[in-house]
Every structure is written in structure tokens, then in C-alpha cells.
Amino acid sequence: MKKTLADINVKGKKVLVRVDYNAPLDANLKITNDKRIVAAIPTIEYLLKKDAAIILMSHLGRPKGKVVPEMSLKPVAARLGEVLGKPVKFVGGDCISAESKKAAADLKSGEILLLENLRFHPEEEGKNASGEKDKAAMNAFSKELASMGEVFVQDAFGTVHRSHASTAGIVKYVKDAAAGLLVEKELKFLGETLENPARPFLAILGGAKVSDKISVIENLLGKVDAIIIGGAMAYTFLKAQGVNAGISLVEDDKLDLALELLKKAKERKVDFLLPVDHVITNKVDFANKSVPSAAKVESTVDEAIHEGFMGVDIGSKSIEKFAEVIKFAKTIVWNGPLGIFEIDEFSKGTVAVAELVAEATDEGAISVVGGGDSVSAVKKAGVDKRISHISTGGGASLEFLEGKELPGLAALPDKK
Ligand code: AMP
């Protein structure tokens, strides 16, 4: 177990907090969604109660080691101030400039400072000014950041799968470090749930590609009682077993792997459920996520998809079949939509499954949803408030499900 806020002394201290303020901005640099800013509020409020002086650090976008004025965190400082109802100090330009360091040194208990975008420095991502990998440059940058505070709090779950100067490197240069409240919650649900799940334990996996989720399937096969596969991924598994998949998005180079995974599931007595019918069409405008007016949309009677058609959603029999497993599950982990849910006509399967997961949760199951698209899907279904935990980090939650070590967490000290 990693140290959490309750395990470290922050009272009256200068606390460096890594947050994920990678908020989407429009062309006028207005924040279009502040959920990441809101997500880290509990940690900030905890630290304010402890009279800490709070120095927030984040990246925004991909400036690739250069100062890109449009990727400044200035609008984030303003929005954070509005959300907290308290001024947030901000120094532009360079997060480790003499001016930034002075602002940090002058910061008093109960005050908040947000440093400028960390990724304006190539060292944040482990490179030097010439763009080459450079561990020494990264360490020096970590040290500079660490010099501005006394203790470090990791609350940027969205970046804990990155081994960067401010996520992992900094820990060795501070007196103490811990997970913030947001990361602690993610660890509780993604970590403890996976390690010690109430059974039956069900994983629902969807999305576009098997190749993106091979490691997730492999890791979960050793833990779950059942796996439901939907989305385009399902067609690779069906085709591998000789079922006609028409022009569905099949990864032909992954057919053998799909068979191997099916074999492993059988050996481990994991119930591996694939759709038994589908909604199909002969045309999709993938770029605009729409159905061209000339397209034919049909439902199949069984697994097979006829020539010239592709599977775009699970059918009604599949929903019924999946419902029988979902309603008895006591732990449910879900990543990836079961169809092209962005198109209303093809979102019925995903929305039905979201409702079923919410119903199981109402009955006492623990449900964890991760990945940007699955999160949008539960929101689209209007059931997001009924899910036990919605992970804030797409990439990080996927790597968690893969059983990988996440550098930003691994670097934190263990509880005594
Ligand atoms: P991922 O990021 O791997 O979770 O994939 C999410 C994407 O998969 C979404 O944009 C969905 O539209 C897409 N998707 C789901 N089912 C299908 C399908 N049957 N055919 C094509 N794309 C799909």
C-alpha cells in the first residue's frame, strides 16, 4: 500500500501537488470542460484545512518541450480560482524561473500557486533541449521542481502511467510523498477491486481493436469469472472461429491470437461471451460518425454477418444473453463501448449494457468504468451517478487493467 495524505505531515508545509489540469480549451482559450479541475478539489481542500501552502504542477496539451502560449495554464488558474472561490496565483513563462521560485518561496499557508505548463520544458518528458533522451537533464529538472516545496502529493491519476520528472522523478528529491485523495480513490477501486474482487467478477470489454486490449484480456483472464466482448473487437474473435464477419472491422493479423485467448479462457474456466446477433450496415461515415442516407441498416438473426455488411452494435439477443451474466455479477469492470455508440442508431447495445451495469450496482455490485469512450457511454445512458467508480484516467486505467506497474505510483513510498 502506498502512503496516502493521512500518512504524511502536511501541516503548515509547502506542498507540491502534481495535478492533471490537461483541460480542453477552445480557439478562444476558454475551458470547455472543467472536470479535471474539479476532480482534484478534495485534495486541495484537505491541504487548505491543514494550513499548507499549495504549489500545483500540471501539463496541458503537447507543447513538446517548447513554450506554446496557447497551452499556458493561465486560464486554468482563473477557473480554479472561480471553483474554489479563492485567488490562485500564477506566474507565466517558465515553471522553474527565478520569478516562479520566488512566488513559491513567498507563498504563505492557505495560499495557492499554479506553476506554468511543465511540458514547456523538454526535461519533463525525459529529454534535453536538443530533444534527445537525457536522464540527467530530467533529474535536474525534478530537483528544481522539488526545491520549491517540502513534500510531494501525487494527484494526477491521468498521468501516473508516465515516467516523467514531475510524476516519478521528483519523489526522490522531497522529504516525503503520498497519493492525493483522487489517486487514493482510483487505487482503492482499480487496485483493491482487482486484487480482491467480490465474485462473480465480470469484465466487459469493447472498443475498436483487439490489439489495444490484448494485455488487458490476458491479465484479466487470470482474475475474472466471465468476460463479455463487444464492439469491433468481437468480430475478430468471431471470424477466428469461422463465423462470417462481412466487412466488419476485423484485425486479420490477430485471428490466431484471438483463438489462443479463447483457449486460455477455456482452460481457466472463464466464461467468454461474444455477441450472438448484431446490428449491421453496409456503410458508415467513420470521419463524421454518421450513417450515410443511402446506407442499409439491418439486424442479423445469429452471429453471421452477410457479405458487404459490417457489425456496428450488439443485437437484442446479445443484450438478453449479457443481461443474464451482468445481473449476477458482484464486481464489474468495463472498458470500451459495445458498438459505434457515437451514432445514436448504433448506441442501443452500449446504452442497454450501461443500464444493466447500473442496475447490478444498485443491487450491491461494485462497478468500475474506465476509458474516455466508456465514460461518455455511461453518461450518454444517463447512469454515471449509479456507477461505483468512474476512472479519471483513460490510459492509466487501461494500464492498471493490464497489470502493469505505473511509474507515478511505483515511485511513491509505501505505508509503514
Ligand atoms: P476504444 O478507444 O478502443 O475503446 O474504441 C472506442 C471506439 O470503438 C469508439 O469510437 C467506437 O465507435 C468504436 N467501435 C465500437 N464498436 C465498433 C464497431 N462495431 N465497429 C467500428 N468501431 C466500433
Molecular structure report:
There is one protein chain. With 416 residues, the chain is α/β, with parallel strands linked by helices. It folds into two domains: 5-182, Rossmann fold; 189-402, Rossmann fold, CATH 3.40.50.1260. 33% of the residues lie in helices and 14% in strands. It is built from 14 helices and 15 strands. The protein has helices spanning 35-39, 41-49, 74-84, 98-106, 135-146, 181-195, 214-221, 233-240, 255-267, 316-326, 348-362, 372-380, 394-401, 407-410, and strands at 14-18, 53-57, 89-90, 112-114, 151-154, 176-179, 201-205, 226-229, 271-273, 278-281, 297-299, 310-314, 331-335, 366-370, 389-390. The strands form three sheets. The chain has a six-stranded parallel beta sheet, sandwiched between helices. It has a six-stranded parallel beta sheet with strand order 9-8-7-13-14-15, with helices on both faces. Helix 8 packs across helix 9 and helix 10 runs parallel beside helix 11. It starts with 13 loop residues before the first strand and ends in a 6-residue tail after the last helix. Adenosine monophosphate binds next to strand 12. Adenosine monophosphate (AMP) binds at residues 206-209, 212, 231-232, 249, 311-312, 336-337, 339-340, 342, 371, 373.
How many angstroms does the end-to-end distance come to?
9 Å
What is the N-to-C order of secondary-structure elements (H for helix, E for strand)?
Answer: EHHEHEHEHEEHEHEHHEEEEHEHEHEHH
Strand order within the widest beta sheet: 3-4-2-1-5-6
**How much of the polypeptide forms β-strand, as a percent range?**
5-15%
User: Going by CATH, what is the homologous superfamily of the largest domain?
Assistant: Phosphoglycerate kinase, N-terminal domain
